[in-house]
Specification:
single chain, Aspartate Aminotransferase, domain 2, Aspartate Aminotransferase, domain 1, 2 domains, 7-stranded mixed beta sheet, 5-stranded mixed beta sheet, 13 helices, 12 strands, about 15% strand, binds pyridoxal-5'-phosphate
């Protein structure tokens, strides 16, 4: 089955009792047992819930994995993956991963004796050089947040598994989504998602997911999902299931608009540097075109006039809403250094204070470009006046 068909039907069958076409919101904590220990697959909703099961089956099938688990947030999914580790284990991570992921590594798991080191994963030789005898996990994002760096998943999977077949390659596939890129097919062991972003797609739900094709890893993760209990409620699962059906249509439009915005920014005098994976100026464009279907909906750039001008810009757009998060129908704009990535200040992962990140939404490209043009003139004027 093609992806577009799979996404609408995988895990989702008309309700056997009523014929309801949409998976019902099974808003129940517990389930009647027909006799002691004789149940119909569900006992308690932390352990399992039919709405959640439909979402888990759907996401697993989209990533080409056998096993999917849904979580209350992307960070809950990330936290559960980290619980596979033991004190003394080493994690090699990309040096511009999501700020919240870095915070969890650095402020929490380091306390328990896990070691973390960060390298520029766009150069595979850094990955090779960074692997240690005790490296149990390699944590990748591609494209990365917020710089949209692109890493070669297949090449890194080969390096990691040659070093040690038991070292787990984890890819946070939030930015690309399985419509654009399927890390398990490229050799990764585990895929993590914040379903809050493109999978949910409507800025109305917080959620996460983990997908793998390795039964022992799934078994351990499923144990942790139930034991630690960071599960999403049935309503949240329903919202992700509803949003996910239109993922291919949305991602094509996000990419169309993002390409138009990137082309506009590329020629703009106030832009010092542009970051968009499918743009010819991107250093990873060849790898991006090899492993991704399109360039996605995220665009970043560095304002030539620095932090103050970047701030003026993001405070003066009218269609782009100043907000954290990404992946919804509406375009968002932010300054990572003081917003999403504030926790990386003074660390090796700190970002340029003049960096602006755009989540390009589904509006008309003409309006989006006009909005940026207007805000740019404001940001440039302000800079002149204040300097
Ligand atoms: C948002 C995000 C997360 C965290 O997900 P939440 O749902 O906010 O907990 C993790 N990784 C990436 C790349 C993200 O964008």
């Amino acid at each position: 089955m093609k992806f577009e068909t799979q996404i609408i039907h995988a895990g989702q069958h008309p309700d056997p009792t009523t014929g309801a076409v949409m998976v019902p919101i099974y808003q129940t904590s517990t389930y009647k047992q027909d006799g002691v220990g004789k149940h119909r697959g569900y006992e308690y909703s932390r352990t399992g819930n039919p709405t959640r099961a439909a979402l888990e089956a759907c996401i697993a099938s989209l990533e080409g994995g056998q096993y999917g688990l849904a979580f209350a947030s992307g960070m809950a999914a990330t936290d559960t993956v980290l619980r596979l580790l033991e004190p003394g284990d080493h994690v090699l991570a990309g040096n511009d991963i999501y700020g919240g992921t870095f915070r969890l590594f650095d402020k929490e798991y380091r306390r328990y004796g896990m070691e973390f080191s960060y390298v520029d994963t766009t150069d595979t030789t850094n990955v090779e050089a960074g692997l240690r005898g005790n490296t149990r996990m390699v944590w990748l994002e591609t494209p990365t947040n917020p710089l949209l760096n692109v890493c070669d998943i297949q090449a890194i999977a080969e390096i990691v598994h040659t070093h040690n077949p038991d070292t787990l390659l984890v890819v946070d596939n939030t930015f690309a989504t399985p419509y654009l890129q399927r890390p398990l097919e490229l050799g990764a062991d585990i895929v993590v998602h914040s379903t809050t972003k493109y999978l949910g797609g409507h800025s109305d739900v917080v959620g996460g997911a983990i997908i793998t094709h390795r039964p022992p890893i799934h078994g351990r993760l499923a144990f942790l999902q139930n034991a630690a209990g960071a599960v999403p409620g049935p309503m949240d699962c329903f919202l992700v299931l509803r949003g996910i059906k239109t993922l291919p249509v949305r991602m094509d439009r996000h990419a169309h608009n993002a390409t138009a915005v990137a082309n506009f920014l590329d020629g703009h005098p106030s832009v010092a540097r542009l970051f968009y994976p499918f743009h010819v100026t991107h250093p990873g464009v060849d790898i991006a075109r090899k492993q991704m279907r399109n360039g996605g909906g995220m665009v970043s750039f560095i304002h030539k006039d620095g932090a103050k001008a970047a701030q003026n810009l993001v405070e003066h757009t009218q269609i782009f809403t100043l907000a954290e998060s990404l992946g919804g129908a509406e375009s968002l704009i932010e300054v990572p250094a003081t917003m999403t990535h504030a926790s990386t200040a003074n660390s090796p992962l700190a970002v340029d204070p003049g960096l602006v990140r755009l989540s390009v939404g589904l509006e008309h490209e003409v309006d989006l470009i006009a909005d940026l043009e207007r805000a740019f003139s404001y940001s440039s004027n302000k800079t002149v006046v204040s300097s």
